[in-house]
Design a protein that fits this description.
The protein has ten helices and five strands, in the order H-H-H-E-E-E-H-H-H-E-H-H-H-E-H. It is mainly α and about 210 residues long.
């Protein structure tokens, strides 16, 4: 995102519009490849976008901010998953277009956020050092936090499958905030759910 050609594109559109416009997402995905001999291309997107499949609305100004942080049992239960193909079709379209542009020269990587990292944003409502609200729920209502993690896991399996079916040749799972957890908490609230996602896409036979 430091490249001048990227900043030129961003000067014309908002971050969300950039992510949701396949032609622009493909353009900025290709920009690094024009400068450097990289061995893969990662589709340009954001880990929080598929949360719209659960009905979560957000803005980026410049960082992500949720309209309604998820703090209660009722809010967690109200999160109903819609198919990623309906909610974020622009991600699949961008991957298809990028594959076509690269024409086999460079593989395309798709990605998603890990359930713990996504839950941290959902409960906190924004990126905030320490994620105090998220850790409060984790320790005071662990069963509720795991209920949220389960819903996010199902949504991310669907989202990664959408990307692979669109042409992603490998996928990554980003657990950006797992470092907030100690070893015991990591096993329960992070690793278990990442393993479930891996199991949920294993049949697609992509790395």
């Amino acid at each position: 995102r430091y490249l001048p050609e990227y900043r030129e594109v961003r000067a014309r559109v908002t971050f969300l519009d950039l992510c949701k416009t396949p032609e622009l997402a493909v353009e900025v995905s290709l920009q690094p490849l024009r400068r450097f001999p990289l061995d893969a291309s990662i589709i340009f997107s954001d880990i929080l976008l598929p949360l719209e499949a659960l009905g979560c609305r957000m803005t980026f100004n410049p960082g992500p901010k949720l309209e309604s942080p998820i703090r209660t049992q009722a809010q967690v239960e109200a999160l109903e998953h819609r198919p990623a193909a309906e909610v974020v079709p622009y991600v699949a379209q961008a991957i298809r277009m990028l594959r076509q542009e690269l024409d086999g020269r460079t593989p395309v990587i798709g990605f998603c956020g890990a359930p713990f990292t996504l839950a941290a944003y959902l409960v906190q409502g924004e990126g905030k050092e320490g994620f105090g609200a998220a850790k409060t729920m984790l320790y005071s209502e662990p069963a509720l936090f795991q209920q949220l993690l389960e819903k996010l896991t199902h949504a991310m399996i669907d989202y990664l499958r959408l990307q692979v079916m669109a042409g992603a040749q490998a996928v990554q799972i980003f657990d950006s905030w797992a470092g907030l957890l100690g070893p015991a908490e990591y096993e329960v609230f992070a690793l278990r759910w990442v393993r479930d996602i891996v199991a949920g896409v294993r049949d697609l036979d992509v790395p």
